[in-house]
Every structure is written in structure tokens, then in C-alpha cells.
Write a structure and sequence with these properties.
Strand content: 5-15%
Radius of gyration: 32 Å
Structural class: alpha+beta
Largest sheet: 5 strands, mixed
Number of domains: 4
Strand order of the largest sheet: 12-11-13-14-15
Distance between the termini: 99 Å
Number of helices: 26
Helix content: 40-55%
Number of strands: 15
Oligomer: single chain
Shape: globular
């Protein structure tokens, strides 16, 4: 069976070699550099203990320095699964979610045609290069010199020029024996509606060759010399060779530069990409006359885990950035993100480099902000949140945005960051002195009394220790009973871990829940440290490891205690803010009632994780009753 042109290239672009190989090897993480796509492991093809098997994830090839095995993802599947080539293609196509094409006896003929079209494109590149060096290209050469592109730079980028002639390219190519159909199908010329001879698509424009990741010419881009032209930039149409939404300008060279440690920068167009590359930022790409697409975003993540989107600081640039945010949210994975470098208003990368040099752009690059910051700015900048309704509307919008994130761990961390930003925005607004019933004029300062502070401090240290102990029991319990993880996924994500070993075990549990069977192996030191704690060893989930039902009940109870304790802390903090400056005797009594309610909640046993909110609700209701009853006012008689 023959495959359609481009099918294998598309397949290789959609899969990650490290993921394919990772099912068969154990990576040496001391030697590997995940950020650069550089992986090492003992070779799966011969017996060895050292890590001599190397995977270059960006280039999509592996090589063993011991047995000299080498190849790509298809070769690896063929050799390790002992299957034929087409069966290996089917295996990887299923993994990539690509349907296998129907059998096509004309596939070989189509491949020959694709090769012919690429040859036509190369001839067009040569023709336009000659035109730039001719007398007709003098104006274009002056323009390029004004953009600080000397002849050597023009040669590197293979920049050409299309004179303002209706059939200049068409006549040049047909004179070489190339048929009109091939010229038109390559996207270089178009047929008029009246059925006459084809005419050149590019006229009066500086020409930029567009090449795929393997360096093959697949289309052209042109910048108009006439400032009054209908389109400043013009790309070739979509053809058998060119799909603008699935390619990037400067893809191959940028991938190579990123592999050597440079940050991947995503610029807006050809000239920005060229200007940045010539200034030393060689890992720069650009979309091809369209907004960034999902396929382009995945291509970027194959090159770099955290591309930097460089956009103009005007309204259009920010709108483009926010479109990328909306596109990327559902696609986020652990370790795969975006940062945004917003340039000063009125400047594009080329302007900034001319004005401030490469160091000026480097400064902007270093100030790039994560995607969550841009999401927050979109929903808050220039808006007023002076009412509960407006704040509730903000919360609703942000929850909807975060809900689009598929990865539960990333969704959790986005939620935590939004909470932090929300506290920065609203937290200081509650510092005004509260209204005191029966008193008019200037409110009294909100200063807690000595007795109040002592009443809180008396319980804070013991409670913090109790919560830390519960956290240890919960994490160790799920490590001993991983079958219970799915039922408690949300609760585990929401654990507010503070100790490093707690965070490591929490992350490993979530990774294990989502298919990483070796995640817990990497935190054995932290788990052993938890298991040595006396209160962990005697806890039912550990002491009675064979009783899964008992473990489920006990872990649900520990979550309930944590939830109730945190609810009490919130209520007490709110009470302090609401009641600061009032009669100390009543306030202290109220706080003692809250502490007693919390302790009672901690002693209760809950049989089901769905009941976790009842104690908090009861406590809130109790404290509200105390406020409504004006407990701080001494009753007569």
C-alpha cells in the first residue's frame, strides 16, 4: 500500500519520539535534559547498564553509541514490536489519532507530482533571486538596505524580488519546459476568469521563500513595494505542498537554534523574524499570514516547552495574544506552556532593535509574563469591581476559563494563582474600620486587642501541627492504597501542601492517577520519611493495609477534618475583621465558641466524602447567628 504525499511527515509531526521510546526504556534523568528534548537511557536493543541510547526529540531520531542502532519513531516501532513498516505506521497513526488512508494505487504517481511541484518552487526561488540582483531590483535592494539587511543576509534568507510584470515568472518557467499546470498548481500563477494565459501572483513585491521543517520550498511570501497596495503581505495559496495553518516561517533553522538552548520566539511576520534572527535570536518563527492555529501551537511545543509570543504593544497585538490564550488553554500539559513578551507601544521587534539594540529586546524577553498573567489582565484591567455582583461576575468568568484546562494538575495550579491575584486585588479593600452598631461619626480603628490575639495564638500552633499530621496520613494512605485515588482526585488536587516532601508525594499521586506508573518510584525517599512517623504507622490505612473499606472511610474522615478546620480558620479571620475594635469580652467569647465548634467538627466521623461541607456550613451558620444577635452587647438585667 502506498501512502498519500505528506502523510508520513504529518505523522512524524504529531507524535513525540520520546513518548514512543519511553514505553520501552527507563530514562536516566541525571543525564537527560528534558527541556532540550535530549533523552538518555540504557539501550533496548542490547544488554547494557549504562545509558548510551540517545533520543533527540526535536529532530525525531535516536542513536545508540554501543550497538549503533539508529532510526526514527517508525523504525523503533518496527524493531521493538517486530512488525512490518505499514503495521508500524498503523500503530503510530492510531496513537496520533490519524485515520489510515484508503488504499490508493495512484499514491506513487501523486508523490512524483509532489516532487515535481517542489522542483518548480525551487526554480521560482532562483528566478526571483536573480531579479533582485538585476536592474529592476534596485528599489528593492535599497529598501532592504534601509532595513539593515546587507547582501549576505539577503543571501541567507534567499530573498528575491518580483518585478511588476504580469507574466514575468510564467514566461521564465515555461521557457525552461515547465508546464502551465504545474506552475498554477504550485500556487505561483493563477488563471484569469476569462480563460486566458496564467498571470503571476506576485508582482512588485519582495519575495521570501517559505520552507518546511526539512528545508524544502513549499510556498512564497511577498511584501508590497507600493505603500498603497491592497495587501501589504501576500502568501501563496494553499496547495498540495502548502497548508499555511500547519507550517511556520523559519521552522527548520529555529528548531536547530532552540536545540542549542535559545528560547523559541514567535513573531508576527517575515521581517520581524528576520530582524530578530539577524540580531542573534535565531530561534524565531512566525505564523504564515493567519492567527496561530492549534497545529502551529503543537509544532511550537515540539520545538520548545515554553515558546515566547512576542507581540506589538498596541491593541491589535494584545488581541492577538488573547486569541492565543484562548486557543492554548485546553491544550496545556504539564511542562508545556507559553509566555508573552509585550513590546512597548508603537514598536515592533525590528524598530526596538534599531532603537535599543539586541539588549533592548533581550530585556523585553526577560520580562515575558506567563499565560495566567495575561488571562488575569484581560478580565481585570480597566474594570471596576466595587460591588459584590461585579466581583461575582469576575469569578464566574475566570472559573469558566480555568474549566477549559483539561489537565487537572494545571487546572489546580491556575486556580491557586488566580486566588493569589484575587487576594492582591481585593484583600486590601477590607482594611477600613467596621461600622459599630449604635455609634455615629468616624469609625474606630481596626486594632485587635491583646486578649483576642492571645486567644488565636493559643490554638494556631497546635492546629497547624494537627493539619500537618493529617496531611502526612492522607498522602501515605493513598500511596498504600492507589486504587482509591480516582474517587478522591479533586480533594487531592486541592490539598494545600506546604512541606516539600508533601508537595512531591502529592504531585506523584496525581501523575500516577493519570497514567504514569512509575511516578511513585521517584518519591520513595519522601514516602519512607512519612512512613517513619509514629502517627502515620498507627493510622488504619497503613496499619490495616488489607482493609480497603476501612482505609476509604478513614481517609474521607481526614479530609473532613482538614476541611472543617480550614473553614473555621476562615470564619475566625472574618470575625476578626468584622468585629475588630468592639467590646473585648464579647469578641473573645465568640472566638472561643468558634474554636469549640471546630474541635467538635474534628471529632465527628463522616462516612462519605460527599459530606465534607456540612461542618463548615454549620459553623458559618452558628457564627452568623452570633453576629445577628449582637453578642458583643451586654444584656441588661
Amino acid at each position: 500500500m502506498s501512502l498519500p504525499p505528506g502523510f508520513l511527515d504529518d505523522l512524524r509531526n504529531r507524535i513525540s519520539l520520546s513518548q514512543v521510546v519511553g514505553r520501552k526504556v527507563s530514562w536516566d534523568m541525571r543525564k537527560s535534559n528534558q527541556g532540550k528534548g535530549d533523552w538518555w537511557a540504557p539501550c533496548p536493543f542490547h544488554q547494557e547498564k549504562s545509558a548510551s541510547f540517545h533520543v533527540d526529540d526535536r529532530k525525531g531520531f535516536y542513536y545508540c553509541f554501543g550497538c549503533h542502532a539508529k532510526g526514527d519513531a517508525l523504525t523503533f516501532v518496527k524493531e521493538t514490536e517486530n512488525v512490518a513498516f505499514m503495521e508500524a505506521v498503523e500503530i503510530l497513526a492510531r496513537e496520533a489519532g490519524m485515520p489510515m488512508p484508503a488504499r490508493d494505487p495512484r499514491a506513487a504517481e501523486k508523490q512524483d507530482r509532489r516532487t515535481q511541484l517542489q522542483q518548480v518552487m525551487e526554480e521560482a526561488v532562483k528566478h526571483y533571486r536573480l531579479m533582485l540582483k538585476s536592474g529592476q531590483g534596485a528599489g528593492a535592494r535599497d529598501y532592504l538596505a534601509g532595513r539593515r539587511l546587507d547582501p549576505a543576509a539577503q543571501e541567507r534568507w534567499e530573498i528575491g524580488f518580483a518585478p511588476d510584470q504580469r507574466q514575468g515568472l510564467f514566461q521564465a518557467l515555461t521557457a525552461k519546459g515547465i508546464t502551465a499546470d504545474l506552475i498554477v498548481d504550485a500556487g505561483l500563477c493563477a488563471r484569469p476568469d476569462d480563460g486566458g494565459a496564467p498571470y503571476d501572483r506576485f508582482r512588485g513585491r519582495i519575495i521570501f521563500p517559505i520552507r518546511d521543517a526539512r528545508g524544502r520550498a513549499i510556498s512564497l511570501g511577498g511584501r508590497a513595494m507600493d505603500p498603497n497596495a491592497r495587501a501589504k503581505y501576500l502568501n501563496g495559496p494553499e496547495t498540495e505542498l502548502f497548508d499555511k495553518g500547519r507550517n511556520l516561517f523559519n521552522h527548520g533553522p529555529a528548531r536547530e537554534a532552540a536545540g542549542k538552548g535559545q528560547p523559541l520566539i514567535v513573531a508576527e511576520g517575515y521581517m520581524d523574524t528576520i530582524a530578530l534572527s539577524e540580531a542573534g535570536f535565531r530561534a524565531t518563527v512566525a505564523p504564515l499570514g493567519t492567527a496561530v492555529t492549534e497545529d502551529q501551537l503543537r509544532l511550537m511545543w515540539r520545538i520548545s516547552d515554553e515558546p515566547v509570543i512576542a507581540l506589538d504593544g498596541d491593541a491589535a497585538g494584545l488581541r492577538a495574544a488573547l486569541r492565543v490564550v484562548d486557543l492554548a488553554l485546553p491544550l496545556l500539559e504539564a511542562g508545556k506552556g507559553l509566555r508573552f513578551a509585550v513590546l512597548p507601544p508603537g514598536l515592533d521587534p525590528d524598530d526596538l532593535i534599531k532603537a535599543q539594540g539586541a539588549q533592548g529586546f533581550q530585556k523585553v524577553l526577560e520580562g515575558a509574563e506567563p499565560m495566567v498573567g495575561l488571562l488575569w489582565r484581560r478580565e481585570t484591567e480597566g474594570k471596576n469591581f466595587d460591588s459584590p455582583e461585579r466581583r461575582a461576575a469576575l469569578d464566574k468568568t475566570l472559573r469558566a476559563a480555568i474549566a477549559r484546562i483539561a489537565d487537572p494538575s494545571i487546572r489546580h495550579h491556575y486556580g491557586e494563582e488566580i486566588k493569589r491575584l484575587r487576594w492582591e486585588l481585593f484583600g486590601t479593600r477590607r482594611t477600613r474600620a467596621p461600622f459599630v452598631p449604635g455609634r455615629r461619626g468616624t469609625p474606630v480603628p481596626a486594632v485587635p486587642t491583646t486578649a483576642t490575639r492571645q486567644s488565636l495564638l493559643a490554638i494556631a500552633e497546635d492546629e497547624a501541627m494537627a493539619q500537618d499530621l493529617r496531611m502526612s496520613v492522607i498522602l501515605a494512605g493513598f500511596a498504600r492504597h492507589p486504587a482509591l485515588l480516582p474517587a478522591f482526585e479533586t480533594a487531592i488536587e486541592r490539598l494545600a501542601t506546604t512541606r516539600p516532601e508533601h508537595r512531591r508525594v502529592q504531585a506523584a499521586l496525581l501523575a500516577s492517577l493519570h497514567g504514569d506508573g512509575r511516578a511513585l518510584d521517584g518519591v520513595q525517599d519522601a514516602l519512607e520519611s512519612l512512613m517513619q512517623l509514629p502517627h502515620v504507622r498507627i493510622s488504619p490505612p497503613i496499619r490495616s493495609a488489607e482493609d480497603v473499606d476501612l482505609a476509604r472511610m478513614c481517609l474521607a474522615e481526614e479530609f473532613a477534618k482538614l476541611d472543617a478546620a480550614r473553614g473555621a480558620e476562615i470564619e475566625i479571620r472574618d470575625a476578626m475583621e468584622d468585629m475588630a475594635g468592639l467590646a473585648d469580652e464579647g469578641l473573645t467569647w465568640r472566638l472561643s465558641q468558634a474554636a469549640e465548634a471546630r474541635n467538635n467538627a474534628g471529632r465527628s466521623r463522616l462516612d462519605d466524602a460527599n459530606d465534607l461541607g456540612e461542618d463548615r456550613t454549620a459553623l458559618s451558620r452558628h457564627l452568623q447567628d452570633l453576629i445577628d444577635g449582637q453578642i458583643w452587647v451586654k444584656k441588661k438585667g
